[in-house]
Amino acid sequence: GAGVSQTPSNKVTEKGKYVELRCDPISGHTALYWYRQSLGQGPEFLIYFQGTGAADDSGLPNDRFFAVRPEGSVSTLKIQRTERGDSAVYLCASSPSDGYTEAFFGQGTRLTVV
Amino acid sequence: GIQVEQSPPDLILQEGANSTLRCNFSDSVNNLQWFHQNPWGQLINLFYIPSGTKQNGRLSATTVATERYSLLYISSSQTTDSGVYFCAVSGNQFYFGTGTSLTVIP
User: Fold this and answer.
1) Mind spelling out the 3-state secondary structure of B78-100?
2) Residues B93, A48: contact at Cβ < 8 Å?
3) B35-78 pLDDT per residue, tens
4) Chain B residues 68-97 with CB within 8 Å of chain A
5) Residue B8 and residue B20: Cα distance in Å, rounded?
6) Residue A91 sits at the chain B interface (C-beta within 8 Å)
7) Contact: A48, B96; criterion CB under 8 Å
8) Three-state DSSP class for B59?
9) I want to staple A69 with a disulfide (CB 3.0 to 4.6 A). Which of A75, A80, A98, B105 is the partner?
10) Mean pLDDT for chain A?
11) Measured distance CA(A45)–CA(A56) in Å, rounded
């Protein structure tokens, strides 16, 4: 596609459940980022992939959060045992090469944990 | 990590007015971008501007990397300019400021 695509656009889940959020980057972009944005705040870094490997996962808040990018394209952010505090908009971005080129963001997935 | 401060935090303008938004950052960066987050939450790229000056229609931006700041100029503002403007800088990851919330009233 022309831009970064994220699915689903909205997800409501019950506390304690497992969720997966998907990101399709711009074709040919090797760098992929996940961010989380709470109401009234700027996006907060979670993880950065260069190709298939996580180059920097220092932003993942705890071991309930995990992300993969097995073929260097689509990425999935996985959250286990969801908590109400995980409710936020999860944003994905991609850029053409490494972390120092222009990044393009998807429309986000709004996660609500009830 | 790199600290990014944006000012002002909130701005209300009459349609047609001009404004300047500022972004200060705490360390040398390799990349700086300005985004507009629309009411639906989408981050729209405005400028990729690690240094120098760029213009795109009514918007322009200047980054003075040696002094660690960037400015976004909006001229002849329109109601569709409303939303939150973010500055993001990168060292090894992108660091976002807390944004400037702009409201343009008719």
Assistant:
1) CHHHCEEEEEEEECCCEEECCCE
2) yes
3) 999 888 889 999 999 999 999 999 999 999 999 999 999 999 99
4) 86, 88, 90, 92-97
5) 9
6) yes
7) no
8) strand
9) A75
10) 94
11) 10
Residue A99 is predicted with a pLDDT of 59
| Per-residue pLDDT tens digits for A62-105 | 999 999 999 999 999 999 999 999 999 999 999 988 656 889 99
Distance of alpha carbon A46 from alpha carbon A53, whole angstroms: 14
Q: In sequence order, which residues have a C-beta less than 8 Å from that of residue A72 and are 6 or more positions away?
A: A30, A49, A51, A52
**Hey, what are A114's tokens?**
């009830």
Pair of tokens at residue B104 = 């343009």
Return the amino acid letter for B79: T
A103 close to B94: Cβ distance less than 8 angstroms = yes
Question: Are B93 and A56 in contact (CB < 8 Å)?
Answer: yes
Strand ranges of the sheet holding B52-56, from the earlier edge strand across to the other edge:
B4-7, B19-25, B69-74, B59-64, B52-56
Contact A9, A106 (CB under 8 A): no
